[in-house]
Specification:
The chain is α+β, with helices and mostly antiparallel strands and 584 residues long. Among the domains are: 136 residues, DNA methylase specificity domains (Adenine-n6-DNA-methyltransferase TaqI, Chain A, domain 2, Alpha-Beta Complex), CATH 3.90.220; 194 residues, Alpha-Beta Complex (Adenine-n6-DNA-methyltransferase TaqI, Chain A, domain 2). Helices cover 41% and strands 14% of the residues.
């Protein structure tokens, strides 16, 4: 194992997905293939060790100290998964130990009890145990003693590598969960058996062979007992265990280093973003903080999953008027609001809608954040024509129906429309016209799960004659003097979402808004020219986020490939010995 090479280049791939976990798997895989430590020509061949194990097992059976072993099919040529070094031998767990051993002791003896949660998944982690009286735990449980090796046989514990060498048991023995296979080794290092049980070859081969229902699959006793077991000479087993322990300690150090590095980077990124959320920052200092965050946050991000935080900050800056400068020559938003109110009245009449009782007037203190003096805070009801959609399952007259495409909640995502599946619905011909979407309509979801509450996207006329269902609100601008994408930016921002979360009717894990609550939603309204500047800047910065996300994703894939190459180069025996395909 060339650890110097690994340490020299590890930083290049340290942020690869599951880098340390994959390194651990690779170490275990090399260990059971005879490629982790060099072979010693003076070692006694594993074939001789098997002869001593066979003799000892016969002695124990004859002395009544062990049950006569159950016979399992011998390994066939096609069962051998890979070649072994010359002094190794292919064997089986059933051949190198006693399966399902039993313990005997007085009922009032204190012994260990080990339930499944106390069986570790990590290599090198010790099992924990409770102390109980033997009379209480000797029946109905699995027996084991110090030095026995246990394998969790139920899903998902087996897939996660739950297995252990039992040590430091009270009185040297105990019992525990019935979901364990147990072997008591004879002249074989129990830690080497554990390495085999945690190795990718054993687990990955065993998963497809598990039996039972989807939620309760188990590793059969036959697979545990009779699957191929690569047996090295006893002296080499000890060298392998020592090397695995050394390398796993190195993995622990690498893992701790990575965790510390990520924690530092996360704190720096979080601090940069947090400075942008101060309630009343100094304008000059705020601009400096914003410039720093937008310029350097990419350098502080090493994973694609960190980019959403940057997106949230961009939207937050936008809705507080901090993303682009205000232009004194812009027409005040108050004049724009007057025209929008008139256009809304005309739109109501054109669509044949009845006037509604006005919602409570809003003031500048309505929203819990600062915004420019030239902005206004109307309610949605002051500006938009808001309707709910068509209700499914209506009884329709045979001669007055038409099938049209319609949008469901699943189609309206936060900031975009997912039109991969657009279903159709049969409605009255009048409803097909009444609920038909127009270019620039703002679509908002009523709720359900928390992530669906107030999700907003803009309709760009992607599907002809499309309508919307009643769990999707249509918020229609009355004229082109309001940018629908500005509204989408606000409602999908932290501040916009906060309104819906506070106003929503809530039950366990569910939340929804009704028409009244949506009509009362406050809307920060910049001058129209500034709306366009904000939308353009958000689009520009979101494109940069897309590029950053793609770059980080590609970098993760590259680091993953480099990791594989590095492992195969660095984690390899320095003096590989000859190999043999069959047991001696």
């Amino acid at each position: 194992m060339n650890t110097d090479l690994l340490l020299t280049h590890y930083q290049r791939i340290a942020d690869a997905p599951d880098a340390v976990a994959r390194l651990r798997r690779f170490i275990l895989d090399l260990a059971v293939r005879g490629k982790l430590v060099p072979q010693d020509p003076s070692d006694e061949p594993a074939g001789e060790l098997l002869k001593r194990i066979t003799a000892e097992k016969a002695r124990l059976v004859e002395a009544g100290l062990a049950r006569k072993p159950k016979g399992y099919p011998s390994l066939a040529e096609e069962d051998i998964p890979y070649p072994l070094p010359t002094k190794w031998a292919w064997s089986q767990i059933a051949e190198i130990g006693i399966l399902s051993p039993r313990n005997e002791a007085p009922d009032d003896t204190e012994a260990s009890f080990v339930p499944m949660p106390m069986v570790p998944a990590e290599y090198g982690a010790a099992n924990k145990h409770e102390v109980r009286l033997w009379g209480d735990i000797k029946r109905g449980y699995t027996h084991f003693a110090d030095g026995d090796v246990g394998l969790a046989k139920i899903t998902p514990c087996f897939e996660n590598g739950k297995s252990t060498v039992f040590r430091n048991l009270m009185g040297g023995f105990g019992s525990g969960t019935t979901e364990l296979h147990i072997v008591r080794p004879l002249f074989v290092n129990p830690d080497y058996i554990l390495i085999h049980l945690k190795s990718p070859q054993f687990i990955d081969t065993g998963i497809p062979k598990m039996t039972g229902t989807a939620g309760q699959k188990r590793v059969s006793g036959e697979y545990f007992a009779s699957s191929p077991f690569p047996l090295p000479p006893l002296a080499e087993q000890r060298r392998i265990v020592a090397k695995v322990d050394e390398l796993m300690a190195l993995c622990d150090a690498l893992e701790a280093e990575r965790a510390a590095r990520e924690a530092t980077r996360d704190r720096l990124a979080a601090a940069s973003l947090a400075r942008l959320h101060r309630p009343d920052p100094d304008p000059l200092r705020f601009r400096a903080d914003a410039a720093f965050a937008l310029e350097h946050l990419a350098a502080l991000s090493a994973r694609a999953d960190q980019v959403p935080a940057l997106r949230r900050v961009i939207l937050d800056l936008a809705v507080r008027g901090k993303l682009v400068p205000q232009d004194p020559s812009d027409e005040p938003a108050g004049e724009l609001l007057k025209r929008l109110a008139k256009a809304k009245t005309l739109c109501f009449k054109a669509e044949g809608l009845r006037e509604r009782s006005p919602v409570q007037p809003l003031t500048r203190d309505t929203v819990p954040f600062e915004y420019p003096d030239c902005w206004e805070i109307p309610s949605f009801d002051d500006v938009f024509v808001i309707v709910s959609g068509v209700t499914k399952g209506q009884k329709l007259p045979p001669d007055d129906r038409i099938e049209v495409p319609y949008l469901r909640v699943a189609n309206v995502q936060r900031g975009f429309l997912d039109l991969s599946v657009v279903k159709t619905i049969t409605v009255k011909r009048g409803d097909a016209i009444r609920f038909r979407l127009k270019y620039g309509d703002i679509l908002m979801t009523e709720g359900g799960d928390w992530d669906k509450l107030g999700r907003t996207a803009v309709w760009d006329g992607e599907v002809s004659h499309c309508i919307h269902q009643n769990h999707v609100f249509r918020v229609r601008p009355p004229s082109e003097e309001i940018n629908p994408r500005w509204v989408m930016i606000y409602t999908n921002s932290i501040n916009g979402r906060a309104y819906f979360e506070d106003a929503a009717k809530q039950t366990t894990n569910l939340a929804s808004i009704n028409m009244t609550q949506l009509r009362g939603c406050p809307l920060p309204l910049p001058p129209l020219a500034e709306q366009h500047r904000i939308v353009a800047k958000v689009d520009e910065l979101m494109a940069l986020c897309d590029a950053l996300e793609a770059r980080l994703g590609a970098a993760e894939a590259t680091r993953g490939r480099l990791l594989e190459a590095l492992l195969h180069t660095a984690v390899a025996p320095e003096e590989p010995g000859p190999v043999a395909d069959r047991r001696e």
